[in-house]
Specification:
heterodimer; A: 685 residues; mainly beta; five-stranded mixed sheet; 43 strands; globular; B: alpha/beta; 8 helices; 37% helix
Chain lengths: 685, 154
Amino acid sequence: MGRRTRISLPVAMAMAIALVAIGPGSLPCLGQTMNYRALEEIFGEHVTTSATGSPQKVADAPVNMEIISADDIRRSGADNIPDILRFVSGIDVRRYGATNADIGIRGYNAANSPRVLVLLNGRQIYVDYHSYTAWSTVSVQPEEIRQIEVIKGPNTALYGYNATAGVINIVTMDPIFDPLNQVTLRGGNRGEQKMSAIGTAQWGDKAGLRVSASEHGSREYSTADQPRAFGPYPSHNFNRTAYAHGRAELPSGITVSAEADVTKSKQFEMTVGGYPGWTAYESDREKVGVGGATSLGYLNLNAYRNVVDFKYFAGWDCITCVGVINTLYVVQASDLAKPAVNHTVRAGLEYRNNRGNGSAYPGARFGFDVYAIDGMWHWLVTPKVALTSSVRLDHMTFSYHGPVDPLVMYSAKEYNRRPMTEPSFNESVVYKPTPDDTIRLSAARAVQAPDFYALFPEPVDPTFLVGNVAALEGSPNQKPTIIMNQGVDYDHKLPALKSSAQVSLFRQTSQAILASPGDSGIIDANRLGYAGNIGRSRALGGELGLMGENDAGWRWKTAYSLVHITDRIAVNQNLSEPNSSIDYRRGSPVHSVVLGLGRSWDKFEADIAARWQSGFDDISFGGDGTALIRTRIDDYTTVAGRLGYSPLDNVTLAATGQQLNRPRLATTAGPRTERRLIGSITLRF
Amino acid sequence: MTVLSVLALVAGVRPAAAAAAAGMDNRQVRIVAKVFNFLGKRPMPGASVVVVRGAADVAAVKAALAPMMVVEGGAGDAAGAFAVIVNSAAEAIAASRANPRVFTIGPEVGCVDTGACVLVVETQPQVSVYVSRAAASHAGIEFDTSFMMLITER
């Protein structure tokens, strides 16, 4: 945030009007402008805005949050975020491809996992078409990430629908305060090749611009290991990225920022419903913002545009490839104020315009608009007790313009369904009986909205037949999934051991679970599969962890997580063959253990991490592709390590090994994950 | 009688008792220097900082606030200074009398509680930053919004 130079209210209003007048297509989006580094140097701990929209020390945040720091990222040796998150407790990573993975928080993982909202500096990179994150479209390099903030548990009261299992916010370095100039070359087995470059230009301490670009390719996952359904697929995966982030603090006290990125990728992917495929993405995203202190508090205005062009190849070539272009515009305004010494309040407005079209929906254009209002109140009741209350109201309207096949049971009018209005809340009490102890009680109501794929009709193609389904159709009658979550956390610092311990317990219920077409079990006489709500589910679980580091350079981490799910759903009940890819109870590993040990000394860094998880079922179209198959993934252990050496201050050599313990390992119903040995050199300027 | 004096009397601050407080250690000094980066109006290079005798190690303050002119003196020497580091609330009040716009920095949280000091930094058992809203307003000191969300106001 900028300095507390006051802007008069008329100026603030003029600023807002000017932004609105520009129009959403070219509006600037506000970058996260808090000086994280300087604040961490003062308080000696991580700070965040992801819990409530207000800056907080992580220890004070009213949510269960884990921070993966820049040091953690570097020491992991990983060059993509799923591989980094694999060693975080409570997170389940299904690594379907070299650049494709799905992530669940506290269970409920699935192909194209819809429950985890992923943000880059506060803007979503989550794709609304299928409600998932295409990780290959993440444009930033690991070296330019300041921290990854993982919120375990729902937070739709701040972020809106779909932040239902948790939030992953990727916070990048500040172009003004964090100069980065470097080139990294990586190479290894399985055809691993990557080159990335990052450069920063700074103008005093008032303006900065950072740009980065990368090209990555690999031949990981041999063709022999691939599921046969619709395949075989090329083993070559690639992605290219370019990213720019600029920020300036104007003499008037106003802060302006802008971000833009483009990505292009091709990869093997397990798509929603368990359909394996060869997929291609092209994305471009822009974000601009402005903010400043006013007499009413800190006013933030930002806007961004995401365009993701997705193509699905059912087979090696584009014989039956179909695609969707998802265009999202978001405009947000918020005001953050501290009207009294123990009270912080935040008010926000948001408008989202979400549209889809493309070859999968010839002649059609559809989408939804969201109008939302939210508020947060943080009250420091006593020096040891704080209450935080966040509420949000989302109002969604839907539109469909295009043909509807006569065989489809709904009309075009019905696809322009009535609006939906849903509240969300996050309530919490944080009690700090001693400086070393924190107890956190929380309750939340979260909303998961249906996505394009589940809402709108596709053309009926008589040549298309997968299993018993000839076409996959959205349904206008779906309700949102409502998630209720209660949690209790206890954090305890152990100064004598230079460690901290955490215990978390949660209970979560999901009502009216959304299922995509083909997953709901709803198939009509014309063999058209429809999306629908399929029942309810309940999860109980928790995490137990101990982590620390000492002055001798040693660091350690150990964590156990448990999630036990009970489904009451209308699919996969007493069937010899599955009729849906959804089976949360058997599809979620119940137990997982993460261990990590590392040390830094002289010019060296050495780290090793291991994860064991219990078995689970992954349901997908395997075999000859005519039916869903339940694949049992046995419990497994995977080990990764990195050895880094910096012979000069500006040169780092590193050797990274992933899945060191097994050359090939079945971790999903997709291709087996292979051992990877990667060397890298980083030159800093 | 100044507002600060009234606040101090209301809070029952006695100069003799407050004077017993130990001065800031070097870690506190380094953190105070970092806090300067979050001021609405940062001090110009060459702006003076008065360290009241015993309030902090002058050499450490000079090192932490390198572009600024750091001098050792009494609370009454705050006239014309940007900031003054004091031993007690009473010294903070005296400094404010000499210069109502001076940024008063004290050694312990009681100084902020009384409204005599603008800023106090504690480092044990963990880093806590305290700001007196009344004293800051009186001295015309403003902080970055994000910083204010992270500290304890009194």
